[in-house]
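Usage

Read records sequentially. Each one opens with the input sequence:
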Amino acid sequence: MLVPVDAQQSGIIVTLAYGTPDNLSGRPIYLNPICLLQVEAAAKLAHAARLAQALGLGLQIFDAYRPPEAQWRLWEACPDPTFVADPRRGSPHSRGIAIDLTLVDGNGRALEMGTGFDAVVDQSHHARTDVSPEAQRNRLLLLGLMTAAGWDNYSKEWWHYQLFDAKRYPLIADGAMAPPLM
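and closes with the structure output:
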């Protein structure tokens, strides 16, 4: 069951990139951008937000649940399985158990991560030493917070986290949503 992320209560900033043209497709994909997650994922996200708040930081979300129909649009824009899950196999986003996010300071400004969200370059991978030491520290801090809150990471994207055992969650089509995102 998907639930909306309660950004106000958790202090999370929601900026769904696929509701704007500022994403790798170059155009809005969501007509009705709503930040949704499975109940278990939403609870783990709230835990991560509390851990960040204890350090004077916050979270900014770029994407959460992503309908399979949106996954196809991203695949058409970037058919690279390193950065976009092949929609024929299904994405953890399309199951409502993945989140793309970054850390923000107490004023809501994104911390330096070395690349932007959705940058399809090798420097987006975790454990890169060819980004600034500040970006390396910030990535490790995000990794530590998310791991402590029960999330798994994807080594090729510093911004992507998902629940373990993704296949136990079904793919959820946009038409099953009320209202639909697309």
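Summary fields computed downstream for this record:
- Helices lie at 7-10, 39-53, 68-77, 133-148.
- The radius of gyration is 15 Å.
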